[in-house]
Specification:
Blueprint: H1 2-24, E1 34-48, E2 61-76, E3 79-91, E4 108-118, E5 125-136, E6 144-164, E7 167-179, E8 199-205, E9 208-210, E10 213-225, H2 241-244, H3 246-250, H4 260-266, E11 275-288, E12 293-312, E13 320-337, E14 343-351, E15 399-412, E16 415-426, H5 432-435, E17 456-469, E18 472-484, H6 487-490, E19 500-511
Antiparallel strand pairs: 1-2, 1-19, 2-3, 3-4, 4-5, 5-6, 6-7, 7-8, 7-9, 8-10, 9-10, 10-11, 11-12, 12-13, 13-14, 14-15, 15-16, 16-17, 17-18, 18-19
């Protein structure tokens, strides 16, 4: 009781102090600092049968809310600091996160906290701290690619390189540390595993802009400690699956339904490398074909090698060497045609898939399960990203897809719609489920469907948004995903997944 009260008291006191600083900034000119405050309130209601709703006797209906409060301390154009707090997500009625009777819970956390400054006498901009670090892309509605993009600790540096005759070339580089010091007392009951447990990521992009075109080549390297992804669980991070999901995106199929939580206690000791590594190369861009017609493209290749496990028995019970590797590629494009009444368009991609040999690793694109919202339910691109999970995945790996959509449909002031229909086919070998002894058709560390060349899916979305006031809007969403999994390929395991997956939701968003 005392500890809980102290946590709430000091967190609340900190917020009060920050607000007082903001209040008094106009009357204390000696500080020479301007304070700005902004925020987003979201309250959402949904009915769904997708995880975590409607499965294993869970509630199919839920209501939740979330609040982001951002404070900026601006000393000048060359120096400022930003902090963003997140309150929630709070599930209505749930005591653990403050939604039950009494509404008293410790649900506040720091989402962003960075320092912006410019190197004196240069145009070099530096951002240090908790921030959103991402790689470029054009297929997702959020404007970044599927390999890497999440809030985390790191340093980013950007600088102009060239500007002449309408052509500009810039450079952006970052170092990120997604994981470190999480493995104590989690591996084999030992307490001496704080070594080899950091992951460091280094990236460079060179955006080029000219008359009617933009291209952005990029490269990334990751140094991956043997124990860097251990000790991280959904329970340990307050229920956020986005923290643990990268484990599945960097690893091959482990067999027998085993996920990384199992592998970290049974397979890591057998790896023949203390340090794994990964590298990626990619390109994104778009071209204005006409004033109204724009063509976009993106693609990339990546490879992660964690080493080899000798005498692995995770597939058919026999003992063989298991290559803990994952390497693959994807290429995609989109076409958007802007009209007065809306923006019709097409999105398509191809992603390499696994072959029929589980022992040699994976042939899918390795990635950090980055939010990649190309559709509302299949890929988690709904209005409220805390809604039900993705049915098809976080990324284009292991499938080929074609999506037709009409965005920003509007015939009435303050009322708009998005209509979307997509088809998806697997590129993974239909012999992999049997040879890897996969007991259910989903990817490691998540509910996302694993589609083989014998499987397919389709999705339909309708999103309607009405602006109630200048700062308040409501979004009504209906999304449906049909999974068609081949019974000869999965031999009854396909029954672990719903054929018909749906979500209907209403989300109110207030921004200031």
């Amino acid at each position: 009781m005392h500890s809980s009260f102290s946590s709430r008291f000091f967190f609340g006191a900190g917020i009060v102090v920050l607000c007082l600083l903001f209040s008094f900034s106009a009357t204390v000119p000696a500080l020479a600092v301007d304070f700005k405050i902004s925020g987003v309130w979201q309250v959402g209601f949904e009915h769904s049968n997708v995880i975590p709703r409607g499965v294993r006797h869970s509630d199919s209906f839920g209501a939740k809310q979330r609040f982001h409060l951002q404070l900026e301390a601006i000393a000048s154009e060359t120096l400022s600091g930003t902090v963003q707090f997140e309150f929630g997500a709070t599930d209505w009625g749930r005591a653990a996160n403050g939604g039950a009777l009494g509404a008293d819970g410790v649900i506040g956390e720091v989402r962003y906290a960075w320092l912006d400054w410019m190197v004196p006498q240069t145009d070099v901009k530096v951002r240090m701290g908790l921030q959103l670090l991402r790689l470029p892309g054009v297929l997702s509605q959020w404007g970044f690619g599927p390999v890497f993009g999440k809030e985390m600790a790191g340093i980013s540096v950007s600088s102009p390189l060239y500007k002449r005759d309408g052509l500009t070339v810039d450079a952006t580089a970052f170092w990120a540390r997604p994981y470190n010091d999480n493995s104590v007392n989690t591996y084999g009951g030992s307490r001496n595993t704080t070594h080899l447990d950091n992951m460091d990521v280094f990236a460079l992009s060179l955006p080029v802009k000219g008359d009617g075109f933009r291209i952005n080549p990029w490269a990334m390297y990751a140094l991956i400690g043997q124990y860097s992804m251990t000790g991280v669980s959904v329970r340990a991070v307050g229920g956020d699956p986005g923290v643990v999901a990268p484990r599945g995106g960097l690893m091959p199929i482990l067999g027998n339904g085993n996920n990384y939580a199992w592998f970290q206690t049974r397979g890591l000791t057998a790896l023949d490398r203390a340090w794994g590594d990964g590298f990626w190369l990619g390109l994104a861009g778009d071209v204005d074909i006409t004033t109204d017609l724009r063509f976009g493209f993106e693609g990339g290749y990546g490879s992660v090698n964690m080493g080899t496990v000798k005498n692995y028995t995770g597939f058919d019970g026999t003992r063989r060497d298991f290559e803990v590797r994952r390497a693959g590629w994807y290429a995609g494009a989109r076409l958007d045609w802007a009209q007065d009444w809306g923006v019709p368009g097409i999105i398509a991609w191809y992603g390499s898939g696994d072959d029929d040999n589980p022992w040699n690793g994976s042939e899918r694109l390795p990635q950090y399960n980055t939010p990649w919202g190309v559709t509302a339910l299949g890929f988690g691109g709904g209005t409220y990203d805390d809604n039900t999970w993705k049915v098809l995945g976080h990324n284009p790996g292991g499938m080929v897809a074609a999506i037709a959509q009409i965005d920003k449909i509007s015939f009435v002031e303050n009322l708009s719609h998005t209509l979307r229909f997509g088809m998806f086919w697997g590129t993974n070998s239909n012999d992999m489920p049997r040879r890897a002894n996969m007991p259910w058709p989903n990817r490691s560390d998540g509910p996302m469907a694993y589609l083989t060349t014998s499987d397919n899916a389709w999705e339909a979305n309708l999103v309607t948004t009405y602006k109630i006031y200048e700062n308040l809007q409501v979004s009504l969403e209906g999304a449906y995903v049909r999974l068609n999994l081949d019974s000869d390929t999965w031999r009854g395991a396909e029954k672990a997944m719903y054929k018909d997956n749906y979500r209907v939701s209403a989300v109110f968003t207030y921004t200031f």
